[in-house]
Amino acid sequence: MIDPPIYYDKGHIEFLQKLWGDGYLSPGGPEEVQRILGVVKLSKATVLDIGCGSGGITVSLFNDYGAHKVIGIDVEADVCEIAAERVKKLGLQEDIEIVKVKPGNFPYDDASFDVVFSKDSIVHIENKEQLAKEIFRVLKPGGHFVGSDWLRSNDDDPSPEMLHYLKLEDLGFEMASPNRYTHALAEAGFQDIFLSNRNRWYTEKARQEVLKLSKLMRQEFEDMSSKKFMDLTVETWNAMITVLETGEHCPHHIKCKKPNMAQESDKL
Ligand SMILES: C[S@@+](CC[C@H](N)C(=O)[O-])C[C@H]1O[C@@H](n2cnc3c(N)ncnc32)[C@H](O)[C@@H]1O
Questions:
Q1: What is the pLDDT of residues 197-242, one digit of tens each?
Q2: For residue 261, how far is its CA from the centre of ligand 1 (angstroms)?
Q3: Is there an atom of ligand 1 within 6 Å of 60 CB?
Q4: Which of 106, 132, 247, 256 is positioned for an S-S bond with 190, CB 3.0–4.6 A?
Q5: 51 CB under 6 A from ligand 1?
């Protein structure tokens, strides 16, 4: 089997964490994690974090939200190493496991988790239908899937502007529409499916980010990379802002629930 490409090596992790905060490979920091979780409680829950990256959020799900146990899975070696170091430094190895997995089905039994969480990672997974079925399978009845992801407003061919952005970004994004996600989750058996568009929020954030990258923190970023890298990065961010402004790039929060079998059969 061919190894999957490496997108998040140590240099890329360092760059993203400088932009988004230690342990965060996606925008919004702890406040956005709180908004994603909303009313879903993690207290005493066993949680799966799909695409845990460098582990800041995985740790926060345990430390700040009272999860009983968190398993962070990821497909890349460098992120897993950094996340595992973070957990070890905090002495939380009994409570938080970081597991490097192969892309595809999760190596967990049916009904293993109370909550499945994911932030801005499933954009890398092409088969949303299979993913939805897998999340459903590993959740306990009554459990929640809650997360965020980078979506595209429709499933038609991407616009030339989107193709230009995706080419520059070059991270193997497999963006799908809110309709496709909703359908995949419903087909898998989820109920109470709720998607909320974060386009306006991230458009504003991305404008602030490009200002940091091009001016406010340009020298700091250039010192840790190169002028060439930063020129390309600013070009990529500007291309992303174009498709955010048209609405085609539309990050969403996603929430849904696996029916509680006992409750459902009580209704019959
Ligand atoms: C943008 S980062 C987000 C990381 C983290 N959730 C955060 O917000 O800081 C995306 C992560 O998804 C991981 N990833 C890509 N494909 C994956 C897959 N099939 N299963 C699990 N993780 C995957 C990448 O290796 C990367 O660490």
A1: 999 999 999 999 999 999 999 999 999 999 999 999 999 999 999 9
A2: 31
A3: no
A4: 256
A5: yes
Q: Per the structure block, which two tokens stand in for 151?
A: 């979506």
| Rounded mean pLDDT, 114-136 | 98
* Interval 40-74: pLDDT, tens: 999 999 999 999 999 999 999 999 999 999 999 99
8 Å CB contact between 156 and 180: no
Residue 135 Cβ contacting ligand 1 at under 6 Å: no
Closest to 173 measured CA to CA, from 111, 112, 240: 240
Centre of ligand 1 from the C-alpha of residue 268, in Å: 41
- Measure 74 CA to ligand 1 centroid, in angstroms: 6
**Longest CA–CA separation in the chain, Å:** 66
C-beta of 55 in contact with ligand 1 (< 6 A): no
Q: What are residue 215's phi and psi, to 5 degrees?
A: -130, -70
The pLDDT of residue 4:
73
Q: Which residues pair with 251 in a beta bridge?
A: 150
Q: Which atom of ligand 1 approaches the CA of 119 most closely?
A: 6
C-alpha 127/C-alpha 131 separation (Å) is: 6
The DSSP bridge pattern shows strands 96-100 and 46-50 to be unpaired
Pocket lining: 58 vs ligand 1, CB cutoff 6 Å: no
Query: What pTM value is reported for the model?
Result: 0.96
Q: 102 pLDDT exceeds 90?
A: yes
How much is the pLDDT for 268?
47
